[in-house]
Amino acid sequence: MTPWSHDELVEQLRAVGREHYHDRHPFHVRMNRGELSRDEVRAWAANRYYYQKSIPIKDAVLLSQCPLREVRRLWVHRILDHDGTTEVPGGIELWLRLGEAVGLSREDLESDRHLLAGARDAVDSYVDFVRTHSWIEGVASSLTELFAPGLLRQRLDALERHYPWIEHAGFDYFRGRIDRSQRDGEEALGIVLRHAVTRADQESAVDALRFKCGLLWAQLNALSPAEARP
Amino acid sequence: MTPWSHDELVEQLRAVGREHYHDRHPFHVRMNRGELSRDEVRAWAANRYYYQKSIPIKDAVLLSQCPLREVRRLWVHRILDHDGTTEVPGGIELWLRLGEAVGLSREDLESDRHLLAGARDAVDSYVDFVRTHSWIEGVASSLTELFAPGLLRQRLDALERHYPWIEHAGFDYFRGRIDRSQRDGEEALGIVLRHAVTRADQESAVDALRFKCGLLWAQLNALSPAEARP
User: Fold this and answer.
1) B30's torsion region: left (phi>0), alpha (psi -120 to 50) or beta?
2) How far is A44 from chain B (nearest CA, A)?
């Protein structure tokens, strides 16, 4: 099998996003229309927290699989971005503040007391996927970042407009994340283009991204069984 | 079983170092007396490289096991310290320069062509240990850093004095490492004292340090079977 050109591989990856990214899930569509109840917004924030807190674990697993120093050097900032430092709050801290802004306590989030089994399973399967696949597939699975900026902008706009009861301090997560997603997506794409060079590796990268889209989607299905879609 | 006080635990850990740290191995004793041949110095540098390059992998495994953000925040710099950045050479790069200073090529080290089975097994068993034990035991296994500054100072002095054929640019690894070992050892000790609070966890921490001393020792046994000691 002839390897795809860079353009062809990028198109394959973008096609996965167009078809499977969770911006099209009914729950997100309702969120963006301002149709979620307070309880639904709270359930979403509490369940998505489990994803947030698992991301640095997933990235550490990925680093531990990668024998290339130059790739680890590029990747390690993601752990810092989520965990933060003593000076700079990371993504996990900002998500806790979002939780507070929608009326939950830190304890609500940190205890996982509102975590649904389906959302937990989806996230755990992600960490597991990265543990049991090549580091290139791990990197490829992060390429949902390529599609994130549009969704994040739309979401920030929708939350500000339609949910005036949410304290604005809660939006800092999204404000910082839009630019960072853009950068991270391009960085990961560069790594995949450089290192997935055989057709088999390229197809595995596309499959990894499809898997990742599936588990983001599964988290929303868990939140809203009545509008669950395959 | 009553937990040890902090002082008692520190004493238990230091006792392991006094008895099992590899500064007392005959190969190191000869190194410090200036009695190693050029080939022995080269074999040591080439084999120890495998340890150096595995350390960030081990630390990524450790991060991936640790659910505490505040501990991951403390630990992540170790990966950066070894891998370096585009601006600052890390420990792995400095060890490659040491290899060149003793007359090996980068390719000699990076290809593992001089790597002995016993040295490889010892290092692989370390990564495996961290993967299969608690993150606190992983942290405790790093406490050989507590004993490293003395050995590093002695080694730097011995190399400069007794091995004038080694290019001095090769010593940068040790120069930077003395202070960093001190800091890293104290940091890891603080984590162990805070988090190993039951007597069982404290004993596991001591066992982890004993295991680590054993594998440093095993690397030297592999290098010099004639003077191998249990």
Assistant:
1) alpha
2) 22
